[in-house]
Amino acid sequence: MKPEKTILINGHKHIQFQHESVSENEMLKRATTFYNMCNKRRSIRDFSEKEIPIEVIENLIKTASTAPSGANKQPWTFCVVKSAEIKHKIRLAAEEEERKSYAERMSDEWLEDLKHLGTDANKPFLETAPYLIIVFKKPYEIDAEGKKHPNYYVNESVGLACGFLISAIHNAGLVTLTHTPSPMRFLEQILKRPSNERAFLVLPVGYPATETFVPDIERKKLNAIMNVY
If one looks up domain 45-209 in CATH, what number appears? Predict the structure, then answer.
């Protein structure tokens, strides 16, 4: 094994990147295989209560943590909720906000756009899924002396990490749903998160229920989403 090459850039150590080179045929094969896998992903609202080893969840989150972030600040926290009591509290609070949204906050056009998905203010998946992963973003860090230090491109960074996480969940043979009850400050309160964390996304994780149905919808075709210049 060759010794690792290192250099200094602006006085900071850099290590040589190790790249796996593959043929164009292998490249296309991998790209096609990954697309075909991801194209089977659906947002699932009916979960089985079947248990999942915590080691699987740990590896999913480790995968999410490989996402790029502004200045490598990694401005995220992933809270894993298994407790039935805490999941129940989260469901009650989320449904309260959702009822207000469906009754008062959402426009008529928004509600009309949601009809074909069959959603409403009831969120039983927040209790039936064996795990909830609550993703928090961190606009700033707080050092030992209580001083604030900014993070950069926080929404973009955390959004990328969530994309990695969703792909990892699907790759593991599990299902999830992106749930964003708004506002979400109740999550910070229930989980007693520090003042520099803001709830970003709720991901129930588990197996689908034995009989699960999803909306009969299609993704946009490539020529509607891609432009080559």
Answer: 3.40.109.10
